[in-house]
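Protocol step 4 of 5: obtain the predicted structure for the target chain.
Materials: sequence only (see below). No template structures provided, no constraints applied. The aim of this step is simply to have a reference model before the mutagenesis design in step 5. Sequence pasted as it appears in the construct record:
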Amino acid sequence: MPPKQIDDLLTKVTRYNLIRDGRMLYIDIHEAIRGSLAAPFVAVPNLINIIAQTQYQGTGHTEAQALEDCLQKIESIPFEDIFPQKTAADKTP
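Step 4 output (C-alpha cells):
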C-alpha cells in the first residue's frame, strides 16, 4: 500500500440499505485497515453526504455485531431524527 499521512484512516466498507415506509437510508460498516475506530467494526447510517448522529452508530467486534447494534439503536427512530438538524446558523451563507 502507498505511504499514508500520520492521521490518515483507511477503512474497508460494506454497504447495506434499510428501506422503511418507502424511504431508504444506507448503513455503511467500516472495518479499520489503517488507523483506529471506536471498535473493530463501526456501522454508520447515512444519506451519502449526511452522516447519522453518533448515538445511532453501531459498534462491534464483528460486522454482524456492529450492524445489529446500529439496527437496535435506530429501530423505532424516524429517519429524520437520526441525522443532525440544520440550525439557522447553518443556513446562512
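Step 4 remarks: The beta strands are 10-20, 23-34, 41-46, 58-60. The chain has a mean pLDDT of 89.
Proceed to step 5.
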